[in-house]
Every structure is written in C-alpha cells, then in structure tokens.
# Entry
Amino acid sequence: MMTKHNHLFSAASLAAILIAGTPGAVLAASPDAAADVAAADPAQTAAAQNSGSQNSGGQNGDEIVVQGFRSSIAQSLQAKRLTDMVADVLSAEDIGKFPDKNVAEALQRVPGIVINREFGEGERVSLRGTAPNLTKTLVNGHGIATADWFILDQLSATRSFNYLTLPSEIVGKLEVFKSPQADIEEGGIGGTINVNTRRPLDLDRWTVSASAQAVYTERSGKVDPQASGMVSWKNADETFGILLGAVYQKRQIRRDGVEVLGYQDVTVGGQTAQIPALIGSALFQQTRERYGGNIELQFKPSDDLEIIATGLYSRFNADNVNANYLAWTSNALGGGGTLTNPTVANGTVVRGTVTSTPGGRAAVYDVIDRDAFADTWSGDLDVTWQVGDSARLHLKGGYTKAKGATNSQPFYEGAAPGAFTFDITGRVPQVRFTGIDPNRPSDLIFDFASLHKIDNIDEETYFYADLEKDVDWGPITALKFGGKYTDHLREARFLATTFGGFFIPLSTRGCGGAPCTSASFAGGSLPDDFLANIALPGTLTSYFAVDRGKLRSILNGQPASVRERVINPPENYSITERTYGGYVMAKIGGEGEKVRGNFGVRIIRTDQISRGNLLGVPANTPGAIANPFGTYLPVEINQSYTDILPSANLAFDVSPTVVVRVAAGRTVTRPDYTDIVPRVSLNPGALTGDGGDPNVRPYRANGADLSIEWYPDRDTIVAAALYYRDIQSYIVNRTVQERFPVQTGTPNLSRCTLINAGQQLYNCLFDINRRSNGAGGTNKGFELQVSRPIWGGFGAVVNYTYSDAQSESGDPIPGNSKHALNLTGYYENDRLSARLSYNYRSAFFINIDRASPLNQAATDTLDASISYKLTDNVSLTADAVNLTNTKIFQYAGTTDRFRALYDNGRIFYAGVRVRY
# Structure
C-alpha cells in the first residue's frame, strides 16, 4: 500500500510541475492573450465570463467563444476567486460533462472531498477528513430533508445527506464552503455544501436541453434507460421566467461479496483470541429507479424586487434482496460446540474447525427481500427587496420533507447443526461444511421468518430574514443582520411480526395447511459467475437459491391475524428539534479592493425533545406497556443548549494574479438523531447492537484556514490551502454489555437464559455500541490544486489532500483518509470533448460494527467521459465508471482480520444529448 501511495504522490507532483512549472511558455500558446490580461482585473474577467466570449487580440478583432468543459472550469475559478471565504465551486457544465448521476459523484472531483462506492455509486460525502455527518448540505441556502433506502440507515438516522435522491441534472452550481461565515447555516465542522438550482432569468429566453442514455451494469448484465430534460422560458422584458426539469434513471445492480460479520472472544490454549462470528458468501441484487423534477418560478418586476418560488421532488425506488449463506461460529460455540485444530496469528483465530452440538447450529442461510424507497421534496419562497439605495432585505421560508421506508421485508432463515473448517488467511475466507450440503434445501431446518415494516421520516419548516445595509465606516462597507427559526422532526418506526404469532403458525401450517420447510422456498439458481472475480478455491460459491416470488407469496399469503405487526419498542423513536437564532456580520472592502472579507458572530439556541422506549423494564413499572418483545416504558428527555459562533474571513489581492486568504471561526455539528434518543437496535443473530444516549453533546470545534491562490490566466489556478480544526469532543462508540429479551428458537445458551418457554422468550447478553462523548482531537492537513490547459486542446485538473485526524484518546476517526488524489486529463475542440478522471483515497475507519472495528482499505477508480458534437445542438455521449474494476476491501482494525470483499463491477453509458 505504501509503495502504491508513493507512486501516486509522485505522479501528482510530476503532473503539477508539468502543468504549472512553465507558465510563460504555456501562456504564450494560449489563443487569447487578452484574456490573460483580463484575469488581472476581476471586473474585466467577470465581464468576459458573463459574455461568454473573449477578444482574440488578432488583426481582425475576431471573437473566440470558449465553451464546454474549459469554459466551465473558467467559470468555477472565477467564482472561487471572487469569494471572501475559503471555498471551491463547480459549475453546471462541469457537472453535466462528467459521468455523474448524482451530486455526490460530481463532488468527489473537489479538493478535500471523498466518497465511498460501497454499492457501486457514491451516496454521501466526506470533507477534509471528517465523517459524512459532519458535512452540512444546503439546497439554495437551506437544509433539505433526507431519508434512506437501506434498512440499516433507516434504523440509524444520521444528519448526513443521502445524495442518491439528488440527481446532478437539477444543479446550476455547487459551492463548497470550507471556512465558516456568520451568514451561512451552522452545522458543518467539515464544511458546508450549497447546491444551487438553475434560475430561468439567468438563461436564454428559450433554453431546452435533454439527454437519453442506455446504461449497462457489468455484474448484473442488464441494460437500462436513463433520461433527463429541462425547459426554461422568460418573457421579452426579462421580468418573469419559468423552468421545468425532470429526470428518470433506472439501473439493475448486483454486488458479490464475501463477509465476516463481526468477531468474538474465544479461549485458545489458555489465551483469549478473536474468532470470526459469522462467515458468509453474500449476493446483493437491486433495482434502482430514480425519478423526479424541479420547478423554478422567478418574478422580477423591477430592479428592486425579486421573488423566486422553488419546488423539488425526487424519489429513489430501491427494492433489493440479499442472500447470505454463513458459517455460524458464535452459535455453534455458544451452544456448547467445539473448536479444534485452531491456528492463531496476531490474536486472531485464522484457521480451525468448528463443530456444533446436535441441537446447535453450524450453518445459517438468510434471504431478506426488501420493498424499499426514499423520497424527498421541498418548496420555498425567496424574496429579495432593494430598500432605497443602500439596503437589501431578504426573506426566505419553506417546508421540506423526506421519507425512507422498507414497506415490507419478507425474511427467510434456515440453519442446521454440523461442522465446518475455515481459513481467513487468503484474499477471501474459505469455508467447507461437513454434514451440510449448501445446495440441498432439505439439509437446512426452517428456523425463522418475519415480515417487518420500517420507515423513517424527516421534515422541517423554516423561516429566515436577512437585512444588509451599506455603510461607509472606514474599511467596513456593509453590515448584515439575520434571524432564523426551524422546526424539525425526525421519526423512526419499526413494526414487526412476532416469533410466536407469525413464525410458529407459518412453520406448522403455513404452506398449504402443512408445515413450511426450507424446500418450500427454494427455486431458481444463483448467477453462474457468482463470486467469480474474487473467490479462492474453497470459497463457498454455490448454494440453493430462494425464489423471491415464493417467499413473498407464502409470507404475504398468511391470514391477516398472522401477518399482524406490533411495535418493536427499542427501535421506535422520534426527536423534535427547534432552533432559534441569528447573526451580525460586517463586510470589509469589496470588488476591486485589495482587502475584502467579513467578520461576525452567529448565535444559535437548540431545543430538543427526544422520545423512545426502554425495553425489559419490570412489569409493575408505572407507565410500562406489555409487548411480545418485552415490557417497555415510553420516555421523553428534554435538552437545550446555546452556541456562540464567531468567524472571520479575509482575502488579500497581494498582486493582480495572487490571492491570499485567512479565516478563523468556531463551528458546531449536532449529534446524529440516533445518538440522542433513548433507543437500541439489536442484532439477535450476533447478539450485538447499537444505541443512543439523550445526554450526548454536540461536536464543537475551533478552526483556522490559510489559502494561497495564483491565477495566471482565466483558465488556470495553482493553489495551496492549510486547515486546522481543534475538535473539543468526538462522539464515539463505547461497547458495553446489556441484557435484552429475545424471541428465538436458536438461542446462544452461553449468553441467553430462558424467560418463557411457551413464547420462546430468552434474556440475552448483548454487546451494545453506545454513543458517548469521547476525548477531543485535531484535524489538520493541506490541499494542493492545479488546473490549466496545456496545449492544443489538452488540459489537466489535479488536486491532492493530506488529512491528519487524531483523537486525544487514540480512538480512530471515522471517515478520515490520510491521502486523497484526483487526476483529470481532458481534451476538447469544437467537436470532441473527452476526459479521464482518476480518484484515490487511502484507508479509513468507518465505525464500530457488531462490536468490532470496521475499516476500509484504499480504493482507486478510473472514470471516463466522451462526447462528440454531430451539430451545434446534438451530441453523442459515452461514459464509463470504475474502469479499474476496483473491489472494496474491509477489515477489522488490522488487515489480517478480514471483514468483507465486495465486487460491484463496471458501469457503461451511451446516449445522446440535445441542447437548444
């Protein structure tokens, strides 16, 4: 890994030297020397940007129009140059020309941002070495509701935005704010991302664009459609405009994986070692369908008044099925089984044979079919009024709501006693069963089934007011004041079928009046090439398939009384969060000034009401409620706190081409919703879980930034930025042991005691990851950025980020990759536009999962995009994602403690784009 990284860093350094080392020679080859002069004057450059053209400086005064990807780079650089903050910008052309189907995929090109393609597509972003929940996402200046399609995320609601619900087609500009500013919404210690949608008055009177593509997903072997379109109109007086956008995308995906689901202690030769709890071969299949649209109404009856009404809706259908045939070490040994011929390396049992008792379980097969989706919508009204000659009033209010749900989850589980031999020393684990044939359904006892329903809701009502007044107080040119109010609700609901009420009737008479068996659900087959790219000899690559149609028909065909769902108490919770506050900010200097910037303070009051259920309380507890999953007590906890957040940003134009920025400020990020509610999410199969604590305090940090930027011409930047964050307290997982009631027919008797034999109710000892405030720490690093045309239509964009995040207690910091590198080479002429983009991020810690660390090794991917203009209005397009066919390798703290290897394959797009 280190050798690879050194090669990558050397390549980045060499590329930067080649691109930026001889600016005079390169500038001499530029087609427009006048543009280089204009770059020395921001006002002239802005005028050139707005016109979209430049004077060539030739004898005939010919005009050269710079369009396409190079034009979008120039627009992005100009926006970055003129901002007072430490920030980066992506323009619409920049986004639209990459093979990026959501905003997270586009953002990975920005210095300091990394994504994770665990299911083949980026969903969340990490900024400057922080976890995704420490990055704030805004749409047109305000937070947008978010919810999740994946059941584990639905049960563990975070504040990190899920970009799968936000297609890149709706975007006009992306702003990445890396330093705090008093008039920007609080909430992002890592930074703030503002997604700006397009405005009709900013476009031509009639603007129409559309694209259609076919997408081929390599692992599934499926071809699916993608389409998007936009139409924008404004009247001749440019006082009213309307924009409509729509997008539809479908993709059938498949992910092959080999997994170790946690580790547990075992005694070997008188010493304690860690042994894999579950070792499985997992097949994940999903149909992804994203559709939605946005509307923008813009009314500007005079230069003094502007009214904008915005609406956005996006839905992400995400039906999926996961099949996993596993060696069940924890149950076999917990039920009195034996471990023989063990090999221990670095405190881990890496080889051995596990044998269960006749009544225990050595193998378990889970098939979970999920009817899932996530959607989001928002509507707001934005009013700007020029009050006299020197004041501007801005009012904004709206409502946003998101829902993520697994409407139904048919779940089959079969298991059997026996033995298996395992070896986890290779690229992936190898498992061989004795006494169990994974391809024979009759070898597995039908042990469990359920038909749960889970959903989470996120909604907010908000109102902002801002007033800016021009003043002439020496260096202070304007004062700005603002206030805000938000009312936010986050809710998670888990309705479950019960073991005795659902499974027992199903198992005794649920299949045509006869007992259901594993064979009742069998049908079809696994893909012929399942695990073909990652398996070793001895890896389990074949087992009988469960027919989704049979599974749904049998479980949904039970009488209504059997299918009745009841509340699963510990995983139902809600939180109401209201914020009140405001800011005052002074602006310094302005356009054309040598020094410009701002300083101010933001004050925010947060009131929270957390509601949840305590499980397993004594039946005589006042207010307790009886439930098949155990007696529970509803509880409510109130918490309030106030944050004072000063900030300052200064930009110095030290020469016509060099800008130096300094910034400092205090930031806050509120804990994830599941961190601050009295709840617990249990995994009975592994006897692990995670839970919240209403007393957890927010993340708070003091930070400083320094940026030096050189703009030798309108298409070029050479920049370096330093950042430092002193984080007062990280929120971390602490593993504790707690007892909870569990309904099961296959208890781990070493950790479970019988409560009620008739209901098969046991009291079991779980390892629970409880969220708590840990020690503070620091996050510091630097960014290097170079972008410029080179010669004859060729150019390059290079950025590298170094991030060193450390906790005072030594706890690993989630989301921190020490090294991140982006290399993009492009070629563009009047007809052809082509780009190749390479992304690398080094290893990082994800979280504590199933009572053990979950880390991910370094990943590198190569994406490509090409388009060819048939006419001025019609282009053919082709894109490719993950040309390197990168696999995702995860481990538990150390690379010889395997957790997972996933194969998502490559994705290819081909189509046509039309623009008028």
In short: Residues 1-66 have pLDDT under 50 and may be disordered. The first strand starts at residue 54 and ends at 55.
